[in-house]
C-alpha cells in the first residue's frame, strides 16, 4: 500500500514546541483549562500561550490576579472537581508565593485521601540562569519540590523534549512541574523538527544519552546539557571521551540509564545550576554512591552553583554558575583520578 | 447589620428566610444543635478516658454557626469546614435524612472512624481529626492551613459553573485565619469572577492565644467585604435562626449569579483552643470575658424562641437540659435519646474497625496510569 509521505516539518524552537504541546492538548482534552498571570490577553510574558485565549475562550483560559497562592489553590479545586489545569508561573522564582498550595494542598492530595482524589495539574514556567535575570528571574528551585513527595518534576533541554514531556505532563494524573529553560526558548542552534500529536510524546522518567563516551559520565539537565556537551568536546581534545546523560525527569529519576553508563565509564560528574547544598545534584550523587559504589573508580563529583543567589551582571553570574570550564576541569579531575 | 448593600441597611428585611420555617424545622434545628453538642462532649469524655489520640478542637457554644449555615443548602452544594467544625462533616445534607446512605454528607460512622484513626475513615486515617473530605459528598478536604482551602472551594464551584451547574460553596474560617494572605487572594479572585462562594467567619474572638485586636483592626469584620465590592453580613452566632437567615441571604445572592459574600458569625470559644490548651486558656482569657461569652448557649437561645412561638412548652424545654453545662457536668440524660443513639452508632462502628495496616503509610504518594 502506497504511503503518503508526511510533509517535512520545519524546524521549530523550544518555545514553539511548548506552544504546540499546549494547543494540541487543549484541543484534545476539553477538560483542560489554563490559569496564570497575563496568559490570556497578553499571551504570556514570553508568549508561550499566545493565541490560546482567542482559540479556546474565557472558560478555558484565565488571566489571574497576581495571586500565586490563589492560582494554585483554585487549580486544586478545579482538579478536585473533574478538571485538569495548566498553571503558568510567570517566572518560576515567584512560585514561592504559592508554595504552601503546591506542597501542602496539591502534592499531598492523593496521599491524604488514600487515592480518592488525584491532581492532574501541570505547573510550568520559565526557569534558570545565564540570562542576566538576577536574583529573582534566574532561579532553579526544583529541589524544594523534589523534597515534597507527590510531585513529578521534568526539565527539558530540547524542543522535542519540551513538547514531548509537556504533553506527557498534561496526560499524567499527578501534579507535574515543568521547568522550562527560558534561555533556550528562542535559541536558534537547537531548533529541530518535532513530531505532531501522539508521536511527539516523551515519557516522564526516562533519561536520554546525548553523547556516548567511555571515560566519564556527565549527568545533567536543562541549560547545563549544552555546557556538558561543550565540555565533552574539550575532554576529547585531552584524549578522554565523555558520555553526557540528560536526565530530563528528576522525579521519577531514571537511575537505570545512569547506572548503565557508569558500568561503562566508572566515573561520575553531576552538573546542576541550583545551589550546592541540598541541590538535586547532591541527591543523584547520594543515590549512586549508595547503589552503585562498586561501579565507581573515582569519587563522584558535582559542579553546581555556589551557595549564593544568582547575581545580575555577567562577571558575577558567571562566577557563581556552572560553566563549560568548570565542568571540563572537574571531569578531567575525575578522569585522571 | 449589613454592609456593601446600602439598600439593606437594616435588619428588618421583610421576608427573613427563617419566616418560612415551620414547627418541624424548628424541632429539627434544635435536635441538630443537641447532636452537634453531644458529638463534642462525647469526644471530650472519650478523650479524657484515654480512648482517643490527637487534639480536640471543641465546637462547644459554636454549634449554631454550623447547624444554621448548613440547614438551607442544596445537597450538591459544597462545604469546606476546618478544625472547629467536625460536626459539619456528618451534618451536611441532613435534610436528605440522617441515615440516608444517598445523602451527600459523611456518615457519623465515617467521621467517628476518622476520629478513632481507623480504616473506616474516608481518608483511611492518613491525616488526623478534621482533615478529611469527600468528593462524592462535595466536601473539600480540610488541611491544617486554615484559610488555605478557600481557593480550592473557589475552584470546585468554578468547575461546576464551567459545566453549567449552579452550586454554592460555603467555607468556614476562624476570624484569626482572615489575616492570612491566601484569604485575601481567594476572596479577591472569587469577587472578580462573581463565584458562588460564601465565606463564613466564625468569630469566636480568639485565635489560639491571640485576641482579635492583635489579628486585625477592622472591628466589624464583615466591613472588610467592602474592599472586595461584595456584601458583608453579620450574624448572631448564638442564634441558629439568625445564622440561617444571613447565610441563606448570601447563598441566594451567590446562586443568582451575583457573587461571593462574607458572613461574620459572632460567637465565643467555650474552652481552650484545643484540649491541650484548656488549662492555659484559663489564664490568658479574662474570667469575666469567658463567663460573658458563654452566657448565651445556642441551645437555650433556640428553646427560648420556640417557647415564645408556642412550638414547645416550658416543661418540654426543660426536659433535656444540655445547655449551659460543661462537658464534665452534662450527661446522656440531658440529650434526646435519638441523638445519643445516633452517636452511639458511629462510635460502635469506629471501635470495631482495625487501624490501617502499616504499609499503607507508603502508599498513594502518586496516582497510577493516565
Ligand atoms: C498556616 C497556619 N498557621 C498556624 C496554624 C496553627 N493554628 C491552628 S488553629 C490556629 C488559630 C486559628 O484561629 P481562628 O482562625 O480564629 O480559628 P479558631 O481556632 O478560633 O476557630 C492556629 C494559629 C495553622 N494550623 N496553620
Ligand atoms: Mg477564632
Overview of this protein structure:
The complex is a heterodimer of chains A (337) and B (370). The radius of gyration of chain A is 20 Å and the shape is globular. In chain A, 57% of the residues are buried. Chain A has helices spanning 14-28, 52-56, 68-80, 99-106, 109-112, 142-146, 159-171, 224-237, 255-265, 280-291, 314-320, 324-336, and strands at residues 32-36, 61-63, 84-88, 121-127, 152-154, 176-181, 208-211, 216-220, 242-246, 249-251, 268-275, 301-305. In chain A, 36% of the residues lie in helices and 18% in strands. Chain A folds into 2 domains: 14-200, Rossmann fold (3-Layer(aba) Sandwich); 208-336, Rossmann fold (3-Layer(aba) Sandwich), CATH 3.40.50. In chain A, strand 5, helix 7 and strand 6 form a beta-alpha-beta unit. By secondary structure, chain A is an alpha/beta fold. A 7-stranded mixed beta sheet of chain A has the order 2-1-3-4-6-5-10, with helices on both faces. In chain A, strands 7-9-8-11-12 form a 5-stranded mixed beta sheet, sandwiched between helices. In chain B, a hairpin with a 2-residue loop joins strand 5 and strand 6. Helix content of chain B is 37%, strand content 9%. With 370 residues, chain B is of the alpha/beta class. Chain B has one domain: Rossmann fold, CATH 3.40.50. Chain B is globular. The chains are: A alpha/beta (337), B alpha/beta (370). Chain A binds chain B through residues 33, 59, 64-65, 67, 69-70, 72-83, 100-101, 104-105, 108-118, 149-150, 152, 171-174, and chain B through 122-124, 126-127, 131, 133-135, 140-141, 143-145, 148-160, 162-163, 181-182, 185-186, 188-189, 192, 360, 363-370.
Amino acid at each position: 500500500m502506497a504511503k503518503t509521505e508526511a510533509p517535512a516539518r520545519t524546524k521549530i524552537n523550544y518555545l514553539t514546541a511548548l506552544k504546540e504541546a499546549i494547543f494540541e492538548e487543549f484541543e484534545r482534552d476539553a477538560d483542560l483549562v489554563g490559569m496564570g498571570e497575563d496568559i490570556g490577553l497578553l499571551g504570556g510574558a514570553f508568549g508561550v500561550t499566545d493565541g490560546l485565549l482567542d482559540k479556546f475562550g474565557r472558560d478555558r483560559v484565565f488571566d489571574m490576579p497576581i495571586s500565586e497562592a490563589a492560582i494554585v489553590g483554585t487549580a486544586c479545586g478545579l482538579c478536585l472537581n473533574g478538571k485538569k489545569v495548566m498553571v503558568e508561573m510567570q517566572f518560576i522564582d515567584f512560585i514561592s508565593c504559592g508554595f504552601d498550595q503546591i506542597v501542602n494542598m496539591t502534592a499531598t492530595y492523593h496521599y491524604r485521601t488514600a487515592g480518592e482524589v488525584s491532581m492532574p495539574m501541570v505547573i510550568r514556567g520559565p526557569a534558570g540562569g545565564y540570562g542576566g535575570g538576577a536574583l529573582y528571574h534566574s532561579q532553579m528551585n526544583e529541589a524544594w519540590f523534589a523534597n515534597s513527595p507527590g510531585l513529578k518534576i521534568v526539565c527539558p533541554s530540547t524542543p522535542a523534549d519540551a513538547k514531548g514531556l509537556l504533553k506527557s505532563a498534561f496526560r499524567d494524573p499527578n501534579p507535574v512541574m515543568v521547568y522550562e529553560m527560558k534561555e533556550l526558548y528562542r535559541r536558534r542552534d537547537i531548533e529541530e523538527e518535532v513530531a505532531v500529536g501522539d508521536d511527539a510524546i516523551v515519557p516522564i522518567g526516562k533519561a536520554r544519552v546525548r553523547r556516548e563516551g567511555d571515560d566519564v559520565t556527565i549527568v545533567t539537565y536543562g541549560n547545563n546539557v549544552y555546557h556538558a556537551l561543550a565540555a565533552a568536546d574539550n575532554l576529547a581534545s585531552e584524549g578522554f571521551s565523555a558520555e553526557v546523560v540528560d536526565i530530563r525527569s528528576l522525579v521519577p529519576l531514571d537511575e537505570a540509564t545512569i547506572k548503565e553508563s557508569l558500568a561503562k565509564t566508572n566515573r561520575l560528574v553531576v552538573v546542576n545550576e541550583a545551589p550546592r547544598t541540598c541541590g538535586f545534584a547532591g541527591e543523584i550523587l547520594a543515590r549512586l554512591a549508595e547503589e552503585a559504589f562498586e561501579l565507581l573508580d573515582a569519587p563522584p563529583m558535582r559542579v553546581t552553583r555556589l551557595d549564593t543567589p544568582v547575581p545580575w551582571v555577567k562577571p558575577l553570574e558567571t562566577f557563581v554558575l556552572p560553566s563549560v570550564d568548570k565542568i571540563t576541569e572537574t571531569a578531567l579531575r575525575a578522569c585522571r583520578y | 447589620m449589613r454592609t456593601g448593600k446600602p439598600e439593606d441597611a437594616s435588619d428588618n428585611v421583610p421576608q427573613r428566610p427563617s419566616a418560612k420555617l415551620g414547627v418541624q424545622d424548628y424541632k429539627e434545628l434544635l435536635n441538630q444543635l443537641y447532636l452537634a453538642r453531644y458529638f463534642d462532649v462525647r469526644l471530650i469524655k472519650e478523650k479524657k478516658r484515654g480512648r482517643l489520640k490527637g487534639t480536640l478542637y471543641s465546637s462547644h457554644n459554636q454549634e449554631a454557626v454550623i447547624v444554621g449555615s448548613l440547614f438551607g443548602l442544596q445537597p450538591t452544594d459544597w462545604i469546606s469546614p476546618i478544625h472547629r467544625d467536625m460536626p459539619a462533616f456528618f451534618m451536611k445534607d441532613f435534610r436528605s435524612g440522617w441515615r440516608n446512605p444517598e445523602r451527600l454528607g459523611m456518615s457519623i460512622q465515617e467521621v467517628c472512624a476518622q476520629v478513632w484513626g481507623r480504616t473506616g475513615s474516608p481518608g483511611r486515617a492518613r491525616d488526623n481529626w478534621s482533615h478529611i473530605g469527600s468528593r462524592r459528598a462535595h466536601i473539600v478536604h480540610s488541611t491544617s492551613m486554615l484559610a488555605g482551602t478557600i481557593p480550592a472551594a473557589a475552584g470546585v464551584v468554578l468547575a461546576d459553573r464551567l459545566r453549567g451547574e449552579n452550586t454554592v460553596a460555603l467555607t468556614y474560617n476562624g476570624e484569626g485565619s482572615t489575616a492570612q494572605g491566601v484569604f485575601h487572594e481567594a476572596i479577591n479572585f472569587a469577587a472578580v469572577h462573581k463565584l458562588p462562594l460564601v465565606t463564613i467567619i466564625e468569630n469566636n474572638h480568639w485565635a489560639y492565644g491571640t485576641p482579635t485586636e492583635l489579628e486585625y483592626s477592622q472591628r466589624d469584620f464583615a466591613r472588610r467585604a467592602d474592599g472586595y465590592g461584595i456584601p458583608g453580613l453579620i450574624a448572631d452566632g448564638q442564634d441558629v435562626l439568625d445564622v440561617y437567615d444571613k447565610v441563606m441571604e448570601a447563598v441566594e445572592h451567590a446562586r443568582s449569579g451575583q457573587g461571593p459574600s462574607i458572613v461574620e458569625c459572632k460567637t465565643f470559644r467555650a474552652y481552650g483552643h484545643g484540649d491541650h490548651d484548656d488549662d492555659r486558656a484559663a489564664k490568658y482569657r479574662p474570667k469575666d470575658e469567658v463567663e460573658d461569652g458563654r452566657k448565651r448557649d445556642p441551645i437555650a437561645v433556640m428553646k427560648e424562641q420556640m417557647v415564645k412561638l408556642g412550638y414547645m412548652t416550658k416543661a418540654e424545654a426543660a426536659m433535656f437540659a444540655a445547655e449551659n453545662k460543661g462537658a464534665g457536668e452534662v450527661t446522656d440524660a440531658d440529650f434526646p435519646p435519638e441523638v445519643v443513639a445516633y452517636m452511639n452508632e458511629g462510635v460502635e462502628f469506629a471501635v470495631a474497625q482495625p487501624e490501617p495496616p502499616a504499609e499503607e503509610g507508603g502508599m498513594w504518594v502518586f496516582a497510577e496510569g493516565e
